[in-house]
Inverse folding.
């Protein structure tokens, strides 16, 4: 849920690719923000009336962070795909930019199991993963140059 500068409350509902909005008068309507074929799971309003939407599609095993303008146009799309023990970063056209298969030391003897992923405003990627009895967080640049590792 997020509030726009024009005081519209934005919501997402399970199974709906389009965000809903509640006006100051209380009416629920479709917004201009649609992340199809993904489903929204996080909303955040940023400067210049732009919106960051976290979205996923469980069947496609894809997730994305999408920046949209106030007209609902997708300005930036950073896609992620978690496939069999790796995270794949996809470009706007769907091609693979990079992939991450886990920390070289931790995942030497334990399979990489990505749990969650997020990007920061400075284009760093934070991935949480787990092993048999450990959880850890990796922070890296988009090219997967490590910044820190926390076990």
């Amino acid at each position: 849920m997020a509030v726009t500068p024009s005081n519209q409350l934005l919501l997402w509902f399970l199974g709906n690719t389009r965000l809903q909005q509640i006006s100051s008068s209380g009416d629920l309507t479709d917004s201009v923000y649609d992340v199809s074929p993904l489903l929204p799971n996080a909303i955040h309003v940023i400067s210049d009336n732009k919106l960051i939407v976290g979205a996923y599609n469980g069947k496609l095993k894809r997730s994305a962070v999408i920046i949209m303008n106030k007209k609902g146009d997708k300005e930036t799309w950073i896609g992620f795909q978690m496939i069999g023990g790796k995270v794949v970063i996809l470009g706007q056209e769907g091609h693979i930019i990079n992939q991450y298969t886990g920390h070289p030391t931790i995942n030497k003897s334990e399979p990489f199991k990505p749990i969650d992923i997020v990007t920061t405003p400075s284009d760093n990627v934070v991935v949480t993963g787990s092993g048999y009895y450990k959880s850890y967080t990796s922070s890296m640049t988009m090219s997967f140059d490590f910044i820190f590792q926390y076990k």
Notes: The radius of gyration is 17 Å. Residues 89 and 98 are 5 Å apart (CA to CA). The chain has no helices and 14 strands.
